[in-house]
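Appendix C reproduces, verbatim, an entry submitted by the partner laboratory led by Prof. M.T., so that reviewers can inspect both the input and the predicted structure.
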Amino acid sequence: MFGETHLRRGYWLSIFGGLLFASSSLFEATYILYLSGYSFLQKVELASDVKMFLSLCIFLGLIAATLTFVSAYFQWRGFTRLSGFSGACASVLALFNIMVPFIYGFEVYPIFAVGTILGVCLIAVGVELSGSVLGAKWRGPLLTSREVAVVAVLSAVYAALIIVLKVPSPTGGYTHIGDLIVFAAALLFGYRVGGLVGIVGAVAADFYVGYERWFVSILAHGLEGLIPGFAKGKPIVVQAVACVVGGFLMATTYFVINVFIKGYPAAIISYVRDLFVQAGISIIVGLAVVKAVKSAIPQL
């Protein structure tokens, strides 16, 4: 009973710490946007360095929050060492995020600094509480040799499809249906392969086409592949819902960034495009591909 109480408290402290990371970075971005004379409710026209700073600040806050939620998940599953590692990575990224305004020559909003430091403290206490309870050990490698090979091949295919099928968007960036590979990889091989294919393939394509905010793809397409992977082997309805959630998180990640660097009017157009064109079509085709592959290779 005592151990369960510690685990539960550690879990919620980590969750709150992650929420502080995300909200603090959004406060900082809003503050810098205000100092630049804009509101995200209007059309925003910023210099490239300001756009890069806002994107990086929000990304680091969101990725730190995501890693914190992963840490909480590991606590819930009893993997205390992995929980501690994830929490430490999240804290390092969050603390580095405090330095980003200085690097770009911007002012640090007090709420941003205080919220981030408080989040680190909450996570440290949460991990310590859960670490005091004897946890389970992760069995087997994080990735098998087969999974490494699959990630390499499908990431290359994913990047190639993005490059070949991309359509420039009038609001900036580009649209494609290459995400079908991410959904198929996740549903056929699980969340680890799906998440890595989403990250590696998208970042490789971004580098190739010269997309300067490539780091946003790590979170957006990583989540897009991670979430559907938990539905591997589940009924088609569950898989479809998981893909919708993954596509929603991908589109929402870009939407949050675009609100600050483009303004709400342009961001909502991109959001609809990402949701219903890029994610929507990719989900439909991806599910069809999975069904065809399963029929041809039942042992997968």
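The chain has two domains: 2-131, 145-296. Additional entries are available on request from the coordinating office.
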